[in-house]
């Protein structure tokens, strides 16, 4: 019989936890990248990079699902997203860097794809608010699926900080992409379900996911 090592003695949730330092670095890179992009777009391209946002049902715009969440219609738009994005990015990444990156890809791909399919036509959808709503949903979903004290606590903090923003998934201001909010949120829930849902333990095994 093999004696379990020190890492095996730790709870599975502890072994999967990410590093706060790594989460901080990743958050700083993402935030700095968004600001650098907006500075370059504004002063070098005159805002022309915003054309790489999502134009629903335009075949030439389908690939823009990968660029739209990282573009903003000016500095005011970017400033409105920066703080919630930084906070929710850190809270999501500290749960595990690998899973965070996969969750981000799902939010960008699924959320953006749904905006491309169902968003209002004759408009360009862009902005990190899709990620903000996606990460918020991801944290809430992790709390639901894992139901550990750490996951529930993180979900509660996220809801207390930004739960009021959930009204943003409903149609309102015509210049705001509520579709990106809604579908980013849906994609975040999907990511949590795929990455954190408990699976049944097979007969004869003593480990749990």
From TrEMBL:
<dbReference type="GO" id="GO:0004252">
    <property type="term" value="F:serine-type endopeptidase activity"/>
</dbReference>
<feature type="transmembrane region" description="Helical">
    <location>
        <begin position="124"/>
        <end position="145"/>
    </location>
</feature>
<keyword id="KW-1133">Transmembrane helix</keyword>
<keyword id="KW-0472">Membrane</keyword>
<feature type="transmembrane region" description="Helical">
    <location>
        <begin position="66"/>
        <end position="88"/>
    </location>
</feature>
<feature type="transmembrane region" description="Helical">
    <location>
        <begin position="176"/>
        <end position="195"/>
    </location>
</feature>
<dbReference type="GO" id="GO:0016020">
    <property type="term" value="C:membrane"/>
</dbReference>
<dbReference type="Pfam" id="PF01694">
    <property type="entry name" value="Rhomboid"/>
</dbReference>
<feature type="transmembrane region" description="Helical">
    <location>
        <begin position="100"/>
        <end position="118"/>
    </location>
</feature>
<feature type="transmembrane region" description="Helical">
    <location>
        <begin position="152"/>
        <end position="170"/>
    </location>
</feature>
<feature type="domain" description="Peptidase S54 rhomboid">
    <location>
        <begin position="62"/>
        <end position="197"/>
    </location>
</feature>
<dbReference type="InterPro" id="IPR022764">
    <property type="entry name" value="Peptidase_S54_rhomboid_dom"/>
</dbReference>
<keyword id="KW-0812">Transmembrane</keyword>
<protein>
    <submittedName>
        <fullName>Putative Rhomboid-like protein putative membrane protein</fullName>
    </submittedName>
</protein>
<dbReference type="InterPro" id="IPR035952">
    <property type="entry name" value="Rhomboid-like_sf"/>
</dbReference>
């Amino acid at each position: 019989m093999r004696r379990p090592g020190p890492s095996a003695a730790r709870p599975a949730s502890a072994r999967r936890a990410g590093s706060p330092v790594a989460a901080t670095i990743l958050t700083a890179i993402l935030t700095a990248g968004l600001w650098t992009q907006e500075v370059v777009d504004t002063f070098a391209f005159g805002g022309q990079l915003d054309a790489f946002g999502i134009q629903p049902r335009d075949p030439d715009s389908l690939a823009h699902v990968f660029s739209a969440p990282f573009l903003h219609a000016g500095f005011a738009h970017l400033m409105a997203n920066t703080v919630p994005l930084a906070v929710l990015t850190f809270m999501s990444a500290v749960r595990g860097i690998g899973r965070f990156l996969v969750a981000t890809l799902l939010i960008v791909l699924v959320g953006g794809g749904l905006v491309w399919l169902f968003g209002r036509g004759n408009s360009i959808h862009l902005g990190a608010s899709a990620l903000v709503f996606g990460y918020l949903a991801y944290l809430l979903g992790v709390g639901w699926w894992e139901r550990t004290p750490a996951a529930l606590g993180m979900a509660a903090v996220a809801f207390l900080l930004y739960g009021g923003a959930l009204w943003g998934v409903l149609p309102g201001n015509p210049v705001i992409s509520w579709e990106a909010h809604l579908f980013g949120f849906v994609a975040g829930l999907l990511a949590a379900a795929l990455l954190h849902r408990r699976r049944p333990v097979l007969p004869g095994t003593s480990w749990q996911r």
